[in-house]
Amino acid sequence: MATVHHWTGLEAKALRLALRLSVRAFAQHLGLAVATVSKWESKLADTEPRPDTQAILDTALGRADASVHLRFETLLSEMTSAVTTARRRITASGPRAWEYESWADDLDRVVVALSRQNFTFADSLLTRWLGRFRSPELDDKGLYLFARSTALLGDLKRDQGAVLGPLSAQHSYADARAVFTQLDIPRRVAQLDLSLAVVTEMSGKLDIAARNYESLAVDDRLSRRDRARARLWVGTALSKDGNHDYATRLMQAATRDFEDLQEPDDWSVAHQKLALARRGAGDLTQALHFIDVARSSGTTESPMQRVRLDTAHGHILLSDAATRDDGLLVLDQAAKTAAQYRLVHQLRSIEGIKAMSEGPTEPRQR
């Protein structure tokens, strides 16, 4: 069954056609003047029946049988294909649980699409729901799904490199955080704080990011895994800021947590981060050891992770004159993959590494 939340001439015409009535017969059916119905037919979505007439149309649709409802939804879908979707104000009714289950299923599909960097498909799934509902219309379950969708949109924007601005990861994360705060779900709020700290790091504010990560690493609202990830990212921010030795200690502590938690992918990522920290400290022997562990233990099914691994590996190889050419080849391959999947942030990082390698001498092996 269908419910129209706000009638225009477009929906009224679709109902007339679904009832298989002429303009005159439809006017009689509703108890209205023929001129009124004719006006709807001529202006379609550009005219809106008066509130009392909206109620009459509600009643007419509500009394129609299932076959009329099916024809109505089909006709309306066809008629609105040539009209901007912003004009369409109908949503399927029926059991709200069924609709929310479909939304939740689509969000699971978004997670898979994002893991494969299939941004176009992920965006289409998120737009399907975020474009259909506005938060004031939703109950708590709907708000939860809305906030989760908005957070995933933030992940999509982050992975595409859109970090700051009105259509950025930061904006989506902040919106999702506000809804989870309204719903009083502390764990989700803390997870958004963690995501916002990542955005801060990606935007180059390393001191602020490190302080935020430090707070979250001991935040009881987060799971032990998320706290370990925060500790790892403290090390990442410190290493980027030149504090490689202390960063290594923090990363090793996070690595032990991931091992205790039996999180192999996080454990592999931690070794990748350790490799970069040791490269920064000039310890290329340990850097190569850690990157070899990461490459042999981590999954490379995700284009993002493959690019990150290759970028780290190439960066380390580039740091030694003896392996410089190999490093450039690995970075070129990483750049091709990043460009193929539109991983803008990673592509910029690769270009920055190449540019730095043409400057002062890189760390020597010891």
Beta content comes to: under 5%
The first-to-last residue Cα distance is 73 Å
Helix count, DSSP H or I runs of 4 or more residues: 18
Secondary structure category: mainly alpha
Largest sheet: 2 strands, antiparallel
Oligomer status: single chain
Characterize the overall form: elongated
Mean pLDDT: 86
Radius of gyration, Cα only, in angstroms? Answer: 28 Å
Low-confidence stretches: 84-95, 360-366
Order of helices and strands: EHHHHHEHHHHHHHHHHHHH
- Major sheet strand order: 1-2
Count of beta strands:
2
Helix content: over 70%
Describe the structure.
- With 366 residues, this protein is mostly helical.
- The protein contains 18 helices and 2 strands.
- It has a two-stranded antiparallel ribbon with strand order 1-2.
- It starts with a strand and ends in a 9-residue tail after the last helix.
- The model is unreliable at 84-95 and 360-366 (pLDDT under 50).
Brief overview:
The protein has 366 residues and is mostly helical.
Secondary-structure blueprint of this entry?
Blueprint lengths: L1 E3 L4 H11 L3 H8 L3 H10 L7 H13 L2 H15 L9 E3 L3 H20 L3 H12 L9 H21 L8 H15 L2 H17 L3 H11 L7 H17 L3 H18 L2 H17 L3 H14 L5 H16 L5 H17 L3 H14 L9
Antiparallel strand pairs: 1-2
Helix pairs in contact: 1-3, 1-5, 2-3, 6-7, 6-8, 7-8, 8-9, 9-10, 10-11, 10-12, 11-12, 12-13, 12-14, 13-14, 14-15, 14-16, 15-16, 16-17, 16-18, 17-18
List keywords for this structure.
2% strand, two-stranded antiparallel sheet, 18 helices, mainly alpha
